[in-house]
Amino acid sequence: MFQKMKSIQGAFAHVRLFTLVIIVLAFGLCVFTIYKSMLLASKTQDRIYVLANGKVIEAFASEKKDNVVVEIRDHVKMFHFYFFTLDPDETVIKNNIVRALYLADISAKRQYENLKESGYYNNVISGNISQKIEVDSVTVNIDQYPYYFRCYAHQSIVRATSIVTRSLTTEGYIRNISRSDNNSHGFLIERWATLENKDLNTVTR
Predict the structure, then answer these.
(1) C-alpha dihedral over 69, 140, 105, 125, to 10 degrees?
(2) Which has the minimum average pLDDT: 33-42, 120-129, 160-169?
(3) Vertex 107 angle, CA 103 and 108, to 5°
(4) Which end of the chain is more exposed for a tag (fewer CB within 10 A), N or C?
(5) Is residue 73 within 8 Å of residue 138, measured between CB atoms?
(6) 10 Å Cβ neighbour count for 134?
(7) What region does 204 belong to: left with phi over 0, alpha with psi -120 to 50, or beta?
(8) How far apart, in Å, are the Cα atoms of 174 and each of 16, 69, 105?
(9) What are the pLDDT digits (tens) for 63-111?
(10) How many CB atoms sit inside 10 A of residue 48's CB?
């Protein structure tokens, strides 16, 4: 009789142990499934599908901080392109300067006003002068905020009788602002200053 009771108790103990193991395994499987589902959902949210020319292109979203140096360099290049690209056309000059001034603070506006008061833009128009700029490199320091940058470029000034190549080095600081149609990177150049602007060579036409 006692032997049967011990057998029944042993059987119950085995059933309890087996049931406990099944519950633990089921709980672990649920936790693992939830974790993998959340991980997959997070990865999916970083993907963007763009429809271009009838084709679906997969793009990946990223935080601004991941590309801050690249975006600053492009912002600085865009500003210098608009500020220094001039043609003998008042409308072109005005449109470019307006675009440039959206990307910088009062320091850029002061330089524009100084050039305007000195008659620089009138000379460009009356002398049929075209001016283009090529940015060679932009160094950026993001260790401190606002971010410091230095831009190295060269200008090509085409006159009726000559083509002048000039070196240009500028510096300034970058701070964050809201993105907009006029400022796609959401940066603003501050304390912009010209460090060097000198003739390199002149070619007679």
Answers:
(1) -100
(2) 33-42
(3) 50
(4) N
(5) yes
(6) 14
(7) beta
(8) 67, 11, 10
(9) 555 589 999 999 999 999 999 999 999 999 999 999 999 999 999 999 9
(10) 10
Write down the residue that tokens 């959340």 correspond to. Answer: 38
Whose structure tokens read 């690249």?
Answer: 70
Angular region, 135: left φ>0, alpha ψ -120 to 50, beta rest: beta
- Does the pLDDT of residue 11 top 90, yes or no? no
Over residues 132-170, the pLDDT tens digits come to: 999 999 999 999 999 999 999 999 999 989 999 999 999
Q: Three-state SS across the chain?
A: CHHHHHHHHHHHHHHHHHHHHHHHHHHHHHHHHHHHHHHHHHHHHCEEEEEECCEEEEEECCCHHHHHHHHHHHHHHHHHHHHHCECCCHHHHHHHHHHHHCCECHHHHHHHHHHHHCCHHHHHHHCCCEEEEEEEEEEEECCCCCEEEEEEEEEEEECCCEEEEEEEEEEEEEEECCCCCCCCCCEEEEEEEEEEEEEEEEEEC
